[in-house]
């Protein structure tokens, strides 16, 4: 008989403790982020798709060595370049030199697994992870990124 | 004669309007309350604080097609939602909101409300049976066994109150408690020292009678899809929904009238309809609060609670009160 009443009493007490907890939660501020209207800052280590890093003049730092293209396990990076002649002053006289200039940096994001091998293998610090995540689309063409173009758009 | 017909019409329209408005905005309050307890805003897009959400929901429900599943019993299927809504609205006829605001004061008001409340179980049974859905049938069997077992302690508690007041008229029941909080039935008196326990029993029973969580076994969505209204869409579902919330208002009104002194002010000053409304909305808030705090019980736990705990205690209280009334 005693066990019967103590069970009722303890059960009732636990119910009131539960009610107390939810009552306290009722007056705490809401934690919802109203997403399209509000956004939170992405964390430092967030991995979006890769993007090119620019030098001081706004050109890509990339020297088209092709290490990222070769290191990519999914084969989703394709580069193209052209040789450009330029003049430098060496010991008082002008000399013409050649260098490679990036003309195309395509990222096929549909197959990219965000492993980061490209960023890892880049010796010139020319690519990094972006913080972009609003990438929803119903067409797969929207995920073939022209990173050079994106860099230009970012600068303009 | 024409005046009495007009009076009746006004009363009916007012009762329907009150029930419908409450049903619509209690859904909003429920969702906002659930949101606050779970620390999210709840519906907040349509209108200020989401206050235009109920009309939007209503329009959506009313413009949808009413589907009748193949093989269903058409007559029962169509009657059930009406049977869920109509008794709830009818019960408002005898609920006294204040000394003067009552559609029809009856000498058997308590009895009438309980008679109509038991029709609600019938509606659930017909809905589950008529829709020819196994989940519906299981849910309605559960809901009926729940309603039957919780009506027993509820009525025993009401008998205790009626014995003390000597009347079944809701208005006179409130009149007997007039004059401040110490006269209310919830406060233990010499003739019935267990009144707070009775209040708790009645409160639990009205939660179960209105199929509210944690006793919402009739629509246990994790196991029975949507329970007895699985096959209902459109306004059929809307009527069940409105009936449920109208029943909640009736339940809160009954608790207020039987235990909390109706329209009486706690300090014995300025009695009026606002006290009644304040009390019922506080009770409804606690219904919402309880719903979003506790998980659903099992059907065994539910029936055990009624037959092993609530009925013995309420019976003991009835006998104790009867004896003490004889002594004092």
Automatic annotation (TrEMBL), chain A:
InterPro entries in alphabetical order: 4Fe4S_Fe-S-bd, 4Fe4S_Fe_S_CS, NADH_quinone_OxRdtase_chainI
EC number annotated for this UniProt entry: 1.6.5.3
The protein's name: NADH:ubiquinone oxidoreductase chain I-like protein
Species of the source: Desulfocapsa sulfexigens (strain DSM 10523 / SB164P1)
Keywords noted in UniProt: 4Fe-4S, Cell membrane, Iron, Iron-sulfur, Membrane, Metal-binding, NAD, Oxidoreductase, Quinone, Repeat, Translocase, Ubiquinone
Gene Ontology molecular-function annotations: 4 iron, 4 sulfur cluster binding; metal ion binding; oxidoreductase activity, acting on NAD(P)H; quinone binding
GO CC annotation: membrane
Domain of life: Bacteria
Enzyme kind, highest EC tier: oxidoreductase
Residues covered by the 4Fe-4S ferredoxin-type domain: 48-82, 103-132
Sections of the chain in a coiled coil: none
UniProt-listed Pfam families: Fer4_7 (PF12838)
Classification of source organism: Bacteria, Pseudomonadati, Thermodesulfobacteriota, Desulfobulbia, Desulfobulbales
From TrEMBL, chain B:
Segments crossing the lipid bilayer: 6-29, 75-96, 108-129, 150-170, 190-208, 245-263, 269-290, 302-325
Coiled-coil region(s): none
One annotated GO biological process: aerobic respiration
Alphabetically ordered keywords of this record: Cell inner membrane, Cell membrane, Membrane, NAD, Oxidoreductase, Quinone, Translocase, Transmembrane, Transmembrane helix, Ubiquinone
Major location category of this protein: membrane
Compartments, as annotated in UniProt: Cell inner membrane; Cell membrane; Membrane
Enzyme Commission no: 7.1.1.-
InterPro entries referenced in this protein's UniProt entry, alphabetically: NADH_UbQ_OxRdtase_su1/FPO (IPR001694), NADH_UbQ_OxRdtase_su1_CS (IPR018086)
Annotated signal peptide: none
Catalytic activity line of the entry: a quinone + NADH + 5 H(+)(in) = a quinol + NAD(+) + 4 H(+)(out)
GO cellular component assignments: plasma membrane
GO molecular function: NADH dehydrogenase activity; oxidoreductase activity, acting on NAD(P)H, quinone or similar compound as acceptor; quinone binding
Pfam families reported in the protein's UniProt record: NADHdh
Domain of life: Bacteria
Entry membrane topology: Multi-pass membrane protein
Family: Belongs to the complex I subunit 1 family.
Oligomer and partners: NDH-1 is composed of 14 different subunits. Subunits NuoA, H, J, K, L, M, N constitute the membrane sector of the complex.
PANTHER family in the record: NADH DEHYDROGENASE SUBUNIT 1, NADH-UBIQUINONE OXIDOREDUCTASE CHAIN 1
Entry function: NDH-1 shuttles electrons from NADH, via FMN and iron-sulfur (Fe-S) centers, to quinones in the respiratory chain. The immediate electron acceptor for the enzyme in this species is believed to be ubiquinone. Couples the redox reaction to proton translocation (for every two electrons transferred, four hydrogen ions are translocated across the cytoplasmic membrane), and thus conserves the redox energy in a proton gradient. This subunit may bind ubiquinone.
Protein name: NADH-quinone oxidoreductase subunit H
Protein source organism: Desulfocapsa sulfexigens (strain DSM 10523 / SB164P1)
Lineage, broadest ranks: Bacteria, Pseudomonadati, Thermodesulfobacteriota, Desulfobulbia, Desulfobulbales
Gene behind the chain: nuoH
């Amino acid at each position: 008989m005693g066990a019967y009443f103590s069970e009722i009493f303890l059960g009732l007490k636990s119910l009131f403790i539960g009610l107390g907890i939810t009552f306290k939660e009722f007056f705490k501020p809401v934690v919802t982020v109203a997403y399209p209207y509000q956004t939170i800052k992405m964390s430092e280590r967030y991995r979006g798709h890769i993007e090119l890093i620019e030098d001081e003049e706004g050109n890509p730092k990339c020297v088209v060595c092709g290490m990222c293209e070769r290191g990519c396990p999914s084969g989703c990076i394709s580069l193209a370049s052209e040789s450009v002649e330029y003049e430098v002053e060496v010991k008082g006289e002008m000399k013409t030199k050649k260098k490679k200039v990036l003309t195309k940096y395509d990222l096929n994001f549909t197959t990219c697994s965000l492993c980061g091998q490209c960023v890892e293998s880049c010796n010139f610090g020319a690519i990094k992870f972006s913080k972009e995540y609003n990438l929803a689309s119903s067409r797969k063409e929207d995920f073939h990124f022209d990173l050079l173009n994106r860099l230009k758009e970012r600068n303009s | 004669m024409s005046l009495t017909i007009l009076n009746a019409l006004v009363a009916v329209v007012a009762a329907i309007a009150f029930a419908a408005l409450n049903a619509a905005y209690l859904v909003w309050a429920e969702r906002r309350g659930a949101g606050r307890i779970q620390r999210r805003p709840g519906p907040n897009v349509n209108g200020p604080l989401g206050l235009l959400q109920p009309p939007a929901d209503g329009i959506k429900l009313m413009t949808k097609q009413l589907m009748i599943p193949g093989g269903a019993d058409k007559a029962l299927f169509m009657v059930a939602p009406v049977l869920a809504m109509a008794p709830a609205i009818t019960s408002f006829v005898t609920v006294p909101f204040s000394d003067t605001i009552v559609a029809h004061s009856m000498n058997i008001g308590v009895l009438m409300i309980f008679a109509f409340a038991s029709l609600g179980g019938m509606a659930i049974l017909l809905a589950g049976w008529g829709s020819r859905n196994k989940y519906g049938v299981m849910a309605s069997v559960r809901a009926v066994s729940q309603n039957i077992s919780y009506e027993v302690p509820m009525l025993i508690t009401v008998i205790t109150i009626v014995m003390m007041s000597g009347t079944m008229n809701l208005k006179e029941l409130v009149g007997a408690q007039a004059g401040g909080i110490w006269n209310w039935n919830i406060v233990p008196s010499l003739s019935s020292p267990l009144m707070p326990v009775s209040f708790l029993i009645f409160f639990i029973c009205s939660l179960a009678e209105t199929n509210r969580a944690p006793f919402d076994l009739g629509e246990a969505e994790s196991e029975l899809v949507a329970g007895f209204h699985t096959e209902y869409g459109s306004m059929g579902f809307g009527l069940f929904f409105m009936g449920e919330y109208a029943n909640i208002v009736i339940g809160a009104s009954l608790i207020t009238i039987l235990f909390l002194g109706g329209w009486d002010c706690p300090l014995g000053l300025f009695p009026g309809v606002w006290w009644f409304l304040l009390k019922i909305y506080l009770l409804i808030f606690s219904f919402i609060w309880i719903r979003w705090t506790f998980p659903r019980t099992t059907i065994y736990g539910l029936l055990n609670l009624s037959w092993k705990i609530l009925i013995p205690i309420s019976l003991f209280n009835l006998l104790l009160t009867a004896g003490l009334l004889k002594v004092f």
